[in-house]
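Run log // design_07
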């Protein structure tokens, strides 16, 4: 996927904005807002079509200034009986800078509050899928900053309604081709509608060829005609069958009514479990969170402070995409939580990854060639890095202004403060079984719980409940150490990353480490690990390390890492079914001849976050909740596959092992 070239809007003598590269205007010169209402809302029979629905999915080709989105949001605010969850997926190859977008929307003061709420969360202009939660979580905006063709290949959703708003077909044929319309068809629900300002013959023909029934309608203003369409043809399946979506568990959006509320049990009260509980609770689920310890966040999430930072690679690949999207989501989520819960122990102080060795220096050089936005990453030399850090530094590095440190325990405490979440600490789950379409969750010394859905999020013990599913894990022991702040180190303002990390003073102490010890199942504190942390710090940051007096243990835990370092997020496969249904994979039988996957109904996993769960678990919880509720996924197809719990099972079948 290519990085972004932002929009370069120009303005004519009448103040109307156009794109010089496409030689076209963004809107009707007559009245942009009225055009938006007429063409896209009325053309799609909105708001009538979303009334009475739990979830409604609109997808727009060409987000531009966001005008169509703000007009839709305003209409949704007036006419949704407070029940519809609106998913708005917007594709844009050349997004606007935030300032330009706001200046444009200032023409409509009644739309400004929506624009301001969006801009508060507007991502840096970085290619990828950005999930924003607006209107108190009732509107999910997925901004796909990428070319339309890639976006339509990546989006996983069942779309109810399309806004086709590319520049005119003659100026921008790529947005209207038959191939593109086939991709729209593959993402359309039966009965999906579509509207566009153009009536060009080529658009009508391409839509028809893709299975849409096309109608002409009077165009806006001086335009003679425009097109609307309905999709009633059979949908082509585009997901790999072994990664197909689970059946939707409906009745989820009961935020305002207790009746029919679905119940989920989440096993494990670390970050993965608390994020899952919150994501489901915000979608109206009643959640019981079972944690065997007396308090939340005691094991892998028990560190005093962890770092929030993405992981960049010299060449962009799925690993980097995963981390950067999750990182930006985490930052937005933390800002939202901090507004609500002032006691969240989070410092968005910035994170600096140092060029402490050859590999980091060449990565830094490769990143510097990629023209990434400053709001996301700044590539600093040693002097600049020292100025940002507040202490002299021997190396330059990659600075992430939205990074920082966070207390995992504080995050967990805040996440579970929701009326739909019941926290059951001191509750060890001993067994789960399926009985009459429900899960029975037996707990030691406590009442058995029944649930529609069970999410296994108990770190090192997941295999106990995930049965035979092939979920390889490597346990890795990680210990962090701490030392009292000194007159010199008090100046440190950002987190520093080398092989490990060092935080600024957190409650009078710096946290540093962590060790990375394979084959070491013992999580008790060790003086040797503290020594290792101290040596590592002395090796990379000797001037800071020599300041520290006595080093003490901070925390030790066993973290579960996976062979490919991606967590497992999603449904648990029915292994026997996979072994027989996909046995021919090793003979190269083509994808279209296989049946869809079968999963253990209502059983999900959220695990394998290694030492990066603080950064990645929020977006992964949104993915899990989307899979459970049948919503559009917040990740593209490639990353959905990459996180799928069946991936190693399928690999084994292919290799005939
Ligand atoms: N709906 C927008 C609004 O409410 O302001 C106006 C959209 S404007 C007519 C067309 C948009 O399509 C532009 O923002 C342009 O950058 C975008 N675009 C053009 N070619 C594209 C492509 N290949 N992939 C994705 N977006 C593209």
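design_07 sequence
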């Amino acid at each position: 996927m290519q990085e972004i070239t932002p929009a370069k809007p120009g303005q004519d003598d009448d103040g109307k904005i156009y794109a010089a590269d496409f030689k076209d205007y963004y809107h009707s010169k007559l009245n942009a807002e009225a055009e938006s209402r007429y063409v896209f809302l009325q053309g799609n029979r909105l708001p009538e079509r979303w009334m009475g629905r739990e979830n409604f999915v609109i997808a727009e080709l060409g987000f531009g200034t966001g005008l169509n989105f703000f007009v839709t949001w305003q209409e949704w605010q007036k006419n949704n009986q407070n029940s519809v969850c609106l998913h708005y997926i917007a594709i844009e190859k050349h997004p606007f800078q935030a300032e330009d977008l706001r200046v444009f929307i200032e023409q409509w003061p009644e739309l400004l509050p929506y624009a301001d709420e969006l801009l508060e969360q507007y991502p840096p202009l970085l290619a990828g899928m950005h999930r924003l939660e607006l209107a108190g979580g009732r509107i999910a905006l997925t901004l796909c900053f990428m070319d339309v063709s890639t976006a339509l290949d990546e989006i996983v959703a069942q779309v109810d309604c399309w806004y086709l708003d590319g520049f005119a077909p003659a100026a921008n044929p790529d947005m209207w081709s038959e191939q593109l319309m086939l991709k729209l068809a593959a993402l359309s629900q039966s009965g999906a509608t579509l509207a566009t300002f153009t009536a060009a013959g080529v658009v009508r023909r391409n839509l028809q060829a893709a299975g849409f029934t096309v109608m002409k309608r009077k165009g806006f203003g001086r335009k003679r005609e425009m097109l609307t369409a309905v999709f009633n043809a059979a949908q082509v399946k585009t997901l790999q069958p072994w990664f197909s979506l689970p059946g939707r568990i409906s009745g989820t959006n009961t935020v305002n009514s207790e009746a029919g509320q679905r119940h989920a049990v989440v096993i494990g009260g670390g970050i993965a479990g608390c994020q899952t509980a919150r994501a489901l609770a915000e979608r109206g689920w009643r959640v019981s969170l079972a944690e065997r310890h007396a308090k939340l966040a005691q094991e892998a999430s028990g560190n005093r402070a962890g770092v929030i930072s993405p992981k960049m690679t010299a060449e962009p690949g799925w690993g980097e995409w995963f981390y950067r999207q999750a990182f930006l989501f985490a930052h937005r989520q933390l800002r939202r939580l901090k507004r609500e819960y002032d006691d969240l122990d989070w410092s968005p102080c910035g994170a600096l990854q140092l060029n402490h060795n050859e590999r980091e220096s060449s990565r830094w050089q490769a990143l510097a060639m990629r023209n990434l936005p400053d709001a996301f990453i700044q590539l600093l030399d040693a002097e600049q890095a020292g100025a940002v850090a507040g202490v002299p530094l021997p190396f330059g590095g990659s600075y992430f202004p939205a990074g920082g440190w966070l207390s995992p325990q504080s995050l967990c405490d805040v996440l579970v403060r929701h009326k739909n979440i019941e926290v059951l600490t001191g509750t060890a789950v001993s067994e789960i079984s399926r009985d009459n379409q429900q899960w029975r969750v037996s707990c030691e010394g406590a009442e058995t719980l029944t649930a529609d859905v069970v999410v296994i999020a108990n770190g090192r013990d997941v295999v106990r409940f995930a049965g035979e599913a092939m979920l390889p894990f490597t346990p890795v022991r990680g210990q962090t150490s701490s030392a009292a702040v000194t007159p010199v180190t008090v100046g440190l303002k950002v987190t520093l990353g080398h092989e490990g990390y060092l935080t600024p003073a957190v409650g009078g102490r710096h946290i540093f480490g962590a060790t990375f010890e394979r084959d070491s199942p013992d999580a008790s504190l060790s003086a040797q690990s503290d020594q290792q942390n101290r040596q590592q710090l002395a090796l990379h940051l000797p001037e800071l390390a020599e300041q520290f007096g006595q080093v003490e243990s901070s925390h030790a835990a066993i973290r579960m890492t996976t062979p490919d370092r991606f967590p497992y997020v999603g449904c648990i496969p029915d292994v026997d079914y996979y072994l027989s249904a996909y046995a021919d994979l090793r003979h190269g039988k083509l994808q279209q001849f296989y049946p869809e996957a079968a999963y253990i109904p209502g059983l999900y996993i959220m695990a394998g976050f290694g030492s990066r769960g603080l950064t990645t678990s929020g977006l992964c919880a949104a993915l899990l909740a989307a899979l459970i509720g049948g919503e559009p996924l917040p990740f593209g197809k490639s990353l959905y596959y990459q996180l799928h719990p069946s991936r190693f099972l399928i690999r084994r079948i292919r290799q005939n092992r």
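The longest strand covers residues 474-484.
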